[in-house]
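tokens incoming
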């Protein structure tokens, strides 16, 4: 009966091994440790016990070691055995010798067995968490495909091929993402939170790394090391700029990444819910990089302060809207890609800077609008009153990180300068 119970315990441990992805050696070690913990609780010590686990046969043995003492000198029955009792095991035992006796664990009682199961379950859970953490901490930055299990308002729960739970928070989802239970979804492993001892695997579809991994999968030259991705700037779901460099003069990095008629980026654009991709050639010349990043606008000249990473870009009046982009998106991405603050200015044909009569620079409103608010707007490419008025209100709130009341006050002040004009949605020639 005891043998069957022992085998049943081993079978239970084997099931843990199969379902929890814990190797047999680790399982045996945990089993031995669990037995010793229970014995120590029941007997006060486990020092005189030997626990032998045989995973091949699926059983285990426990032996208790005691020292033979005269019949009237047994002070600790767990550590000592009387001469008479010892000679019942073998008639040649003498005082001072050690007796090793097999112990039936089931005789420790039901409480001991329950304690063993609880101890083992706790250790298995710890090992499971450690295995999950160790697996995914080395996968940060890699794309995985998982099945959508549950869709909530603030996050999506996914399961990998082993049934591990993965989280895709709302702020890591692309605007326009729509998930159905049972469908596969791709994302990059953003981070692993193990602060509570229970690892949480956080995925992301908005990270630039996600776009980078998609490009690496679609463009063989990147995987082969012929082309390198130097920098990515993204506004998820809307637009991204990618700077690439070729290490082979015979390979055009932009053409290789885009493919014939955009064949290599079509799948990526679909995965990113229609996010437009601008691929430009990287250069160490920061001025040239800024000019390329502001494309499709044609730049006349650039004044760059290398120390402060601030530059003034001068363009023909008809190129300003192209440089700024709808809602300031183009100039914002260019600033992110080049790590510079970019201000654009109009030039007349003669080359002199002029402020057009139908627009006003935001700096002229410093007596009415807080300077920090103006700076936040300029960071996102909104440098003039008209560019702010032409941007969607929701975009101003989100991109400039301003309170709705602040945005409404700014719009009120700027609209006062154009009392005779009706508000209309802005669309740059680049977007037309």
């Amino acid at each position: 009966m005891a043998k069957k119970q022992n085998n049943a315990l081993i079978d239970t441990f084997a099931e843990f091994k199969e379902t929890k992805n814990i190797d047999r050696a680790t399982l045996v070690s945990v089993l031995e440790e669990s037995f010793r913990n229970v014995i120590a609780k029941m007997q006060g010590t486990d020092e005189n016990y030997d626990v032998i686990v045989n995973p091949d046969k699926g059983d285990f043995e426990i032996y208790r070691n005691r020292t033979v003492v005269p019949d009237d000198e047994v002070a600790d029955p767990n550590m000592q055995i009387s001469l008479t009792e010892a000679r019942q095991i073998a008639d040649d035992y003498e005082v001072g010798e050690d007796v090793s006796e097999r112990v039936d664990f089931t005789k420790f009682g039901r409480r001991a067995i329950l304690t063993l199961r609880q101890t083992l379950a706790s250790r298995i859970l710890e090992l499971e968490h450690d295995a999950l953490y160790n697996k995914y901490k080395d996968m940060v930055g890699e794309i995985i495909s998982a099945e959508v299990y549950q869709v909530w308002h603030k996050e999506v729960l996914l399961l990998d091929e082993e049934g591990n739970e993965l989280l895709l928070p709302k702020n890591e989802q692309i605007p326009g993402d729509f998930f159905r239970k049972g469908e596969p979804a791709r994302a990059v492993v953003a981070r692993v939170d193990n602060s509570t001892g229970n690892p949480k695997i956080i995925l992301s579809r908005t990270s630039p790394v996600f776009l980078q991994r998609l490009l690496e999968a679609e463009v063989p030259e990147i995987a082969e090391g012929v082309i390198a991705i130097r920098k990515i700037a993204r506004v998820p779901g809307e637009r991204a700029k990618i700077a690439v460099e070729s290490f082979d003069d015979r390979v055009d990095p932009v053409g290789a990444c885009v493919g014939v008629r955009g064949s290599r980026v079509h799948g990526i654009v679909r995965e990113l819910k229609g996010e437009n991709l601008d691929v430009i050639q990287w250069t160490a010349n920061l001025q040239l990089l800024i000019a390329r990043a502001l494309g499709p606008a044609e730049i006349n000249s650039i004044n760059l302060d290398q120390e402060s990473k601030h530059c003034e870009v001068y363009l023909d009046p008809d190129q300003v809207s192209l440089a700024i982009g709808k809602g300031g998106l183009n100039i914002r991405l260019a600033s992110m890609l080049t790590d510079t603050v970019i201000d654009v200015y109009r030039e007349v044909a003669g080359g002199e800077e002029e402020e057009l009569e139908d627009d006003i620079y935001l700096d002229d409103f410093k007596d009415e609008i807080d300077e920090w608010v103006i700076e936040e707007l300029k960071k996102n490419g909104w440098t003039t009153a008209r560019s702010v008025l032409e941007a969607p209100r929701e975009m101003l709130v989100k991109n400039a990180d301003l309170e709705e009341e602040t945005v409404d006050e700014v719009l009120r002040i700027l609209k006062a300068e154009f009392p005779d004009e009706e508000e209309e949605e802005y669309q740059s020639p680049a977007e037309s």
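note: The CA atoms of residues 238 and 275 lie 5 Å apart.
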